[in-house]
Structure formats: C-alpha cells, structure tokens
C-alpha cells in the first residue's frame, strides 16, 4: 500500500508535465442559422462573398446558411512560475512517499521478526508444557499406586488427576496458539493461512551496545516529514508566484465550408498572451496563510515524533536491562525449584509429605520455566525493537 502511495505521487508529478508541453484540441462543428450576422460571417469565413451579398435585403433577410468547420487549437505554456514551483512540490511529495515506503518496509521487517520470536517462544512453551504433562502423569501414577496401598486419601489422588487434566488443557491451548501465530506470520509474508511453521530453537539474540544507541535524524519517517515540510515551502512559493504575470502562446488553424467534409477555405490565428491577475478576492492570500499553518503543524509533528522516539528508545533500553535481570533470576529460580521438587519427590516416596506438596512444587517449577522462556522472548524482542528504533543492523 505504501508503494502504491509512492506510485500515485509519481503519477501526480507526471501530471505537471503540462507546465511545459502544449495542449492540442481538434474539433469539427456543423452549424445552421438564419441569423443575419452569423449567416454573413459564415460566407465570409468560407471566402464566398461577392458584391451581391451586400444587398441590404439579403443582409437583413438571409437564406439559411450552413457552416462545417474543422479546427485545431493549441496552447503552449511559456512562463508560469507558479506552476514550476507546483511541480517542485510534487517532486518533494515523491521523495516523502519514498521515505514512507522505506519506513514501512522496516516496520514490516520488525513485525515479522517479532512474530517469529513469538512462534519460537510458543514452541518452547509447548516443550515446557509437554514436560509438565509427562511429570504430572508420573506423579498421578505414583499417587494411584499409593492410594491402592492405602497410603494416601482419595482427595490426594483426585488432586493429582486434576493436575494432569489441567496440564492437558494447557497443552491443547498451546497447540492452538502455535497455529494462530503461524497464521499471523503467513499474513505478514503474504502467504495463505493454514500452514503451521516450525522454528529454530529459541536463543538469545546478540544485544546491541546500548550506550552507543541513539535516534538519528536520517531515520526514514523523520525524513518523510522533512520532505513534507519542503513540499509545503514549494507550494507556498507557488501561491506567491501566482501574483506574477503569466506568458503563454496560443494559436488555431481552421477550415470552413458550406458542404460536409469539404475544406475549401482555411485560416489561422497565432499569438502570445500576457495575463496578470491583480486581485482574486484574497483567495491567494488566504491560501498562503493556510499552507503556512499546515507547514507549521507538520513541523510540530516532526518535533513530537523525535521526542516520542527518544522516549521509546529509553523505554526499550530499560526493557532490555529488565529482561537481562529477569532472565538471571528465572534461571536461578529454575535451579531452586528443580531441587525443591527432587527433594519433595524423595520425601513423598517415604510418605513424609503430602501429594499436594509435590504438586505445588511441580507447578512452581513449570511456572519458573515458563517465566524463563518469556524472559528470553522479552530480551530478544527488546533487542529487535532497539534495532528498529535506531534503524541499525547488527
């Protein structure tokens, strides 16, 4: 769509070729009249006047006259300074939409990377849930064995069974999320939906050097706004130049005859027209005022966009730092939760703790593993977002 906007801007620019190229019009007219002036004029254009035509009776009461006229007219622009600046403004708009297309491509690239990272995360989540499901089934089988031996109550067995059911539900939802994420990726790639994609195993992206990152003025969205401002400068100049005279050449070649498709007489007109519109009801003055305000508005938008970009950069840097801290914490949490589960499973085998204790420890380990997967995703997403904000490739 952004490329189509650029093509539309190019088409508008090509329309301004009319500033330099001539306008040519061909026409053929058939006319009949008994109007005294026109009837005499027809004969005069057809070069058929003779002495008898000056008879007052014939002049005042002419017979119906016909005229068949073939005509070629042209207008050649020579000096129209306002139209020249109008053409320059259209050229600036092409550049503006070119930068918009570039930024749109960068945004789509970022969104595609984000969608791929989400799919990677969902596959890792699915892996964790598969392990959790297998562990919950093992706990259930152990609990069932203990129940059959009369070592635990039925409520403990039901809790273990509920744990398995919950794990199966989460696993089913995980598979649906993978299909949804694959469809989203298909849309971004312009492909038909329905394909379930696989990904490489998730891993930490190479983080950019945070301290050296900064927002550059040559970012395409900023440059697009700058070109828009320059386009307004040219439009304002065009409006001001409309106060100046215009110089154009014109001409026509004409053939007349009283019979259809006959061309017995011809004539031409050629000349130069200098026109100067001195007052148009303050229309130009108010147009200049409007365009100046629109230019100021665009300049404010540019300042706002740069300020927001700086805030987004600071936020993304904090997100990256938070993700690093969270990842470190989750890795320690996994080690602690794994050890806690191992100890409780050993004590459970000796009948020293309840089924609930083991299930809670298992749930805590799964949550830590899922949080670790999310922390890696947040880290990678912050890294990709920083690249998008600074339009850097590492």
Question: What topology does this entry show?
Answer:
Elements: H1 2-15, E1 23-33, H2 36-45, H3 56-60, E2 65-79, H4 81-148, H5 154-189, H6 220-241, E3 246-257, E4 265-275, H7 283-349, H8 355-390
Antiparallel strand pairs: 1-2, 2-3, 3-4
Instruction: Please count the helical segments.
Output: 8
Q: How many DSSP-defined strands?
A: 4
Biggest β-sheet description: 4 strands, antiparallel
**Global morphology:** elongated
Structural class: alpha+beta
Radius of gyration: 41 Å
| Fraction in helix | 55-70%
CA distance, first residue to last residue? 28 Å
Poorly predicted regions: none
Beta-strand portion reads 5-15%
Order of helices and strands: HEHHEHHHEEHH
Mean pLDDT: 89
What strand order characterises the main sheet? 1-2-3-4
């Amino acid at each position: 769509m952004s490329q189509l906007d650029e093509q539309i801007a190019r088409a508008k620019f090509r329309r301004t070729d009319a500033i330099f190229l001539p306008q040519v019009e061909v026409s053929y007219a058939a006319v009949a009249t008994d109007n005294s002036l026109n009837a005499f004029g027809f004969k005069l254009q057809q070069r058929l006047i003779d002495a008898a035509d000056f008879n007052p009776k014939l002049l005042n009461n002419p017979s119906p006259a016909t005229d068949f006229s073939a005509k070629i007219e042209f207008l050649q622009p020579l000096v129209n300074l306002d139209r020249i600046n109008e053409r320059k403004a259209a050229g600036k708009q092409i550049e503006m939409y070119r930068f918009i297309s570039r930024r749109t491509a960068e945004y789509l690239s970022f969104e595609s990377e984000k969608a791929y990272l989400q799919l990677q995360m969902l596959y890792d989540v699915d892996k964790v849930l598969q392990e959790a499901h297998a562990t919950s089934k093992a706990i259930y089988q152990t609990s069932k064995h203990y129940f059959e031996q009369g070592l635990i109550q039925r409520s403990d067995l039901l809790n273990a069974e509920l744990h398995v059911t919950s794990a199966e539900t989460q696993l089913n939802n995980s598979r649906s999320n993978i299909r949804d994420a694959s469809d989203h990726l298909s849309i971004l790639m312009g492909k038909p939906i329905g394909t379930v994609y696989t990904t490489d195993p998730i891993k930490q992206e190479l983080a950019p050097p945070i301290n050296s990152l900064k927002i550059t003025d040559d970012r395409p969205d900023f440059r697009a706004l700058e070109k828009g401002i320059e386009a307004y400068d040219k439009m304002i100049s065009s409006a001001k130049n409309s106060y100046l005279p215009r110089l154009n050449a014109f001409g026509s070649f004409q053939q007349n005859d009283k019979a259809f498709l006959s061309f017995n007489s011809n004539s031409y007109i050629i000349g130069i027209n200098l026109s100067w519109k001195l007052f148009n009801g303050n229309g130009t003055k108010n147009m200049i005022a409007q365009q100046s305000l629109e230019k100021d508005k665009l300049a404010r938008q540019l300042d706002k966009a740069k300020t927001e970009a700086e805030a987004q950069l600071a936020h993304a840097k904090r997100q990256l730092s938070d993700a690093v801290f969270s990842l470190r914490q989750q890795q320690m949490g996994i080690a602690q939760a794994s050890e806690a589960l191992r100890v409780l499973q050993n004590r459970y085998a000796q009948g020293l703790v309840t089924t609930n204790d083991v299930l809670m420890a298992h749930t805590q380990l799964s949550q830590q593993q899922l949080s670790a997967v999310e922390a890696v995703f947040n880290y990678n997403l912050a890294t990709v977002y920083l690249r998008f904000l600074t339009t850097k490739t590492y």
